[in-house]
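Page 42, continued from yesterday. The earlier attempt failed because a stray header line got pasted into the input along with the sequence. Redoing it now with the clean sequence only.
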Amino acid sequence: MVDVVERVGLDDVAYVILEAGGRSWYPGRFWQPHEAHAPWLGWSIEACERALDRLAQAGVEPRRVVVGGFSQGACVVAEWVASHPRAYAGVAILTGSLMGPHLAARELPALGGLRVVAATSEFDDWVPFDLAEASVRCFERAGASVEFRASNEREHRVGDDAVGALRDLLRGDGGSK
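This time it went through. Structure tokens are written below.
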């Protein structure tokens, strides 16, 4: 994410970047049942909550915070937002998805127009496109305002188009496309 922050290039934005212990937020693949990720997923969501609590203690309200992540981090962020909905400034799910099986039938709590940028590649080996798209549909059904960007990147990385969408989200520019 440090590389993404540098590419976003906004000097007037403060960033809090969490690091997964052992470079992994949870074992296995994100589409496995939640039980397969216990207790790691719970710990990961708790880490996000603690970071938001520290921001609140510093006087930064959730409505001024964009939460986001890439790959496993994006999956954790998606789950965190789904289980702890707030009036965030926005959410960036960069090559990620909600977790667990049966995404097409999953219902999320009301998200009341929450701005979500979801970006992925049609060819990503780690996050199948159809599951990323199903996750987007879950957020839309919950009332989020989703901008979904699909690239033809062949590498598992945050592409330039996704960086641009994140930059716009951080600036508060535009709505969903």
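Notes: The domain at 2-10+30-171 is CATH 3.40.50.1820 (Rossmann fold).
Reminder to self: strip header lines before submitting.
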